[in-house]
Amino acid sequence: MHETSRRLRFFSFCALAVAALGCTRPDGANKALPGDKLFAACTSCHGNKGDGNATLGAPAIAGLPAWYVEAQLVKFRTGARGAHPDDLEGLRMRPMSRQMMDEGEVKSVATYVASLPSAKSAATLQGGDAAAGQVAYGTCTACHGPQGQGNEALKAPPLAGQSDWYLVAQLKKFKAGVRGTNPLDTTGGTMRPMAMLLADEQAMKNVAAHISTLAR
Amino acid sequence: MLEHYLESASTFSGDIDNLIIMVAVIVGFWFLLAEFVFIGLILKFKAQPGVKAKYVAGEDPKEKRWVAWPHYATLIFDVMIIVAAIRVWHHVKQEMPPADETVRVIAQQWAWTFVHPGADGKLDTADDISVVDELHVQKDKTYHFELLSRDVLHSFSVPVFRLKQDAIPGRVIKGWFKPTMTGQFDVQCTEICGIGHGIMPARIIIDTPERHAQWVAANTTGGAAPQNAGGTK
User: Fold this and answer.
1) What pLDDT does residue A26 have?
2) Does residue A134 share a domain with residue A108?
């Protein structure tokens, strides 16, 4: 019986070894894939051009700065973002971010995303008061800039051109503590109290309406 | 026998292993016998000089029994397999032994959220502990689970329990398990659920009552910081 068991284990090992040979990447093991190849996994949600998909809650990412895309991928990979039980879209992004094999691949795909031509997202929300939003946006300018151009030194992403539904969704997440509460997410922790200054969804829509007036 | 390859960690995992072994032995025996007879007959009745092939209608009872007896054997062994399978299926899927605790398992593209009842042992109270990708249970305790899906079809699979149950959007599906050993094991999705299906693994952590109580205390609001990387609330 014991001998039989050892033989079975040996054959199982051989079968697994053969199977493992088929698990290497098609163009060779240990070879980092270029950004455009890695981006193929992103397209099912973010679109072939990285222009986002509101139905899936996937934002437009084309043309975002590489440093920001890389930082977010690292956050998703480490659980700093997208690991909250109520973060439906974040939990979807979390395993996808872990498809990259190493930091080099993260950089590659971030660089590729940054190279994609960006287009200004069309407005999808109704009832936002851009004038009221402009007043509230005053607080945001310190980090995101008066034109929503972002600030790499402060790790604040550009907002101009981003979809209004995504901006409101993220503000809600920050305010509810679904995003920005993980101790590893220092920049999210900075953003959270800012989002809490917005009293309700209408205030968030107002800010998003103002941001949609900013030139990309 | 199968536990040499994959731990057997629930009260019913041994029953399922025995069922698999029974089917493998019966089917394997008859497969080998049939091949042996088949190849033997081919060799015995291969083309020979001066012997003309003839058509056999199978009307002679002596010839007919080569088909009839295997038929009867198939029926008998089918009934044996069906009876054994229904007994195990009934025990695992139809019986619900009284629960010591209930956990909620929420599947989504592409993550698992497990809601633990906290120190009070009841779900939907303030001390519930929601954890992403980690299910914490204790050994020798009967658990009921409530299985939900937030989006599409998934399947909750715990290989060491030999447990698999589909999650269907809009339905709350109940089941049970009773862990019999401590350790950390895989939880998988076993229903194709989208591009990230293959990368939505989770872990089940089976602890002693003392260590489980420590984990509950550490993750209850007001206790120490959560032990996993950001996946609790």
Assistant:
1) 53
2) no
Q: Residue A198's closest CA among A189, A187, A190, A208? A: A208
d(CA B6, CA A9): 12
Cβ–Cβ gap A85/B200 under 8 Å? no
Is the domain of A104 the same as that of A59? yes
Nearest chain B alpha carbon to A77: B229
Would A59 be classed as within a structural domain?
yes
CATH architecture for residues B101-219: Sandwich (2.60)
Which band of pLDDT confidence, cut at 50, 70 and 90, is reported for residue B183? very high
Q: Which of A13, A77, A78, A91 to mutate to test the interface with B (most CBs of B within 10 A)?
A: A91
Both A128 and A83 in a single domain? no
The secondary structure element, H or E, covering residue A14 is helix A2-21
Q: Indicate whether A152 and A210 sit together in one domain.
A: yes
- Are A36 and A107 members of one domain? yes
Same domain as A106, residue A136:
no
Of A93, A73, A72, the C-alpha closest to A84 is A93
Query: What is the pTM assigned to this prediction?
Result: 0.84
Most A CBs within 10 Å: which of B116, B133, B189, B227, as the mutation test of the A interface?
B133
Q: Which residues of A touch B112 (CB under 8 A)?
A: none
Residue whose pair of structure tokens reads 């209930």 in the numeric block: B102
Instruction: Convert the pLDDT of each residue in B186-218 to its tens digit.
Output: 999 999 999 999 999 999 999 999 999 999 999
Chain A nearest-CA distance from B229, in A, is: 6
